[in-house]
Specification:
The chain has 391 residues and is mainly beta. The chain contains one helix and 35 strands. It has one helix at 2-16, and strands at 25-31, 43-44, 51-52, 58-64, 70-76, 81-83, 87-88, 92-93, 97-99, 102-108, 113-119, 125-129, 137-146, 149-156, 161-165, 168-172, 180-183, 187-189, 192-199, 211-217, 220-226, 236-239, 244-245, 251-257, 261-270, 275-283, 290-291, 297-298, 302-309, 312-319, 325-330, 342-344, 358-359, 365-373, 379-387. A hairpin with a 3-residue loop joins β28 and β29 (302-309). It is globular.
Length: 391
């Protein structure tokens, strides 16, 4: 096994050495104090993952920082930008989920929830989750639309969590029969969602507890993979918190095995056999860099993930057809914006990228980067960029 990994590491090194090309990136929106792009000046984008869908549609959130802070969700519908109403600084506005219907997002205060909203491509805003319709609901997290119904993880006033589809409670830490200690944040794609459960005493998440990843598809939970604490025949020791469905019955996730260490895996659904086969995408044992703790993104032809390579935070693309890896962008790379000489911020202990990448149904990659001036190192806010599928 070690010889194979060393050989594979050598082969991959030549692919990873490819230099990224600044001209490949299109600036979509930029928040900054004085010279923002496509949104007002005196704005800031917090740490977040942009959401993308198809035909250029994407959504994101930002803050007005002039006077009292206001929080806003914005959606590019393929033609124009439309925005939500402003929310006061007392409220936390979460990341968005994007579909044909528009952008779904949650708004919570410290001790109670305002609910979940749908910002439609027309600019109309609709409340789709009202906490008053649920028992003791304190906050709403990771809302989405699943077959036209609102789906979300809810936190109750007793500190325990449940997954809701519409007003139906699908699964809960409150149910003694479930033996679930913690429900991690789910991820929705097409008409599937993936979620990780930690088993044990309700609300008491523990790395030593057994873990299991499920896919909810065709209106039922289906087990994808268990760790060694739950299944002694499993070589998985641990999982990262956010598995990602591929929209075709498979699941992408980062885990740790006995042989490969921390590694990125794709469990692919075979329609003929109705089973899933496992495929190793990348392992830290290959020696090329360490996986960051952000969920990967998957499209029809590619997988994109974050990696620290040669002490540089980078976005890596894996081609599902050629099996090659490519560096898309790294710390210190020049990025064309509405100002000259900007680059991905290249400072010690700075994140460089904010949140996870997103791959649209059209194969375009979206990412959020923190920016600085290349010569003076002056902070230049942050921007959302797109890489076209043919580049």
């Amino acid at each position: 096994m070690r010889i194979v990994l060393i050989c594979l590491s050598f082969l991959l090194s030549s692919v990873f050495s490819t230099e990224s090309e600044p001209g490949n990136y299109e600036l979509l929106v930029r928040a900054d104090q004085f010279r923002a792009y496509k949104i007002p000046s005196l704005t800031k984008m917090p740490n977040m993952t942009p959401s993308c869908y198809k035909e250029g549609m994407f959504s994101f959130r930002y803050w007005h920082v002039q006077g009292e802070i206001k929080r806003v969700v914005s959606l590019f519908n393929g033609v124009d930008f439309v925005s939500s109403k402003d929310f006061d600084s007392d409220f936390v506005v979460g990341d968005t989920f994007l579909s044909d219907s528009g952008a779904v997002f949650a708004v919570n205060e410290r001790f109670f929830s305002i609910g979940a909203f749908l910002l439609k491509p027309s600019g109309e805003q609709e409340k789709i989750v009202d906490p008053n319709d649920y028992v003791d609901l304190r906050s709403v997290s990771r809302p989405a639309l699943y077959k036209g119904l609102p789906f979300f993880r809810g936190l109750h006033k007793n500190g325990l969590r449940s997954l809701y589809l519409g007003k139906e409670k699908l699964v809960s830490e409150e149910a003694a029969s479930s033996k679930i200690a913690y429900i991690f944040l789910p991820t929705v794609k097409e008409e599937e969602f993936a979620v990780r459960f930690n088993y044990g005493d309700p609300g008491q998440v523990n790395a030593k507890n057994p873990d299991e990843i499920f896919l909810y598809t065709n209106d039922e939970f289906k087990s994808v993979v268990k760790d060694n604490d739950l299944d002694k025949d499993s070589d998985f020791l641990d999982f990262d918190s956010s598995p990602v469905p591929d929209g075709r019955g498979g699941v992408l996730f980062i885990g740790k095995t006995k042989n490969e260490g921390r590694s990125l895996w794709h469990f692919i659904f075979d329609v003929e056999t109705q089973t899933r086969r496992r495929k190793l995408i990348y392992s830290e044992d290959m020696g090329l860099g360490s996986l960051e703790y952000f969920k990967p993104a998957i499209g029809v032809d590619k997988i994109v993930f974050r990696l620290i390579k040669n002490n540089k935070r980078s976005l890596i693309e894996y081609s599902r057809e050629s099996k090659d890896f490519k560096v898309l962008v790294s710390q210190g790379d020049a990025l064309k914006t509405n100002e000259e000489n900007t680059r991905v911020i290249d400072r010690d202990k700075w994140p460089a990228f904010s949140g996870s990448p997103c791959v649209s149904n059209d194969g375009e990659v979206f990412f959020h980067a923190v920016l600085e001036e290349s010569n003076t190192l002056e902070n230049k806010g942050s921007g959302i960029f797109k890489i076209n599928q043919h580049q």
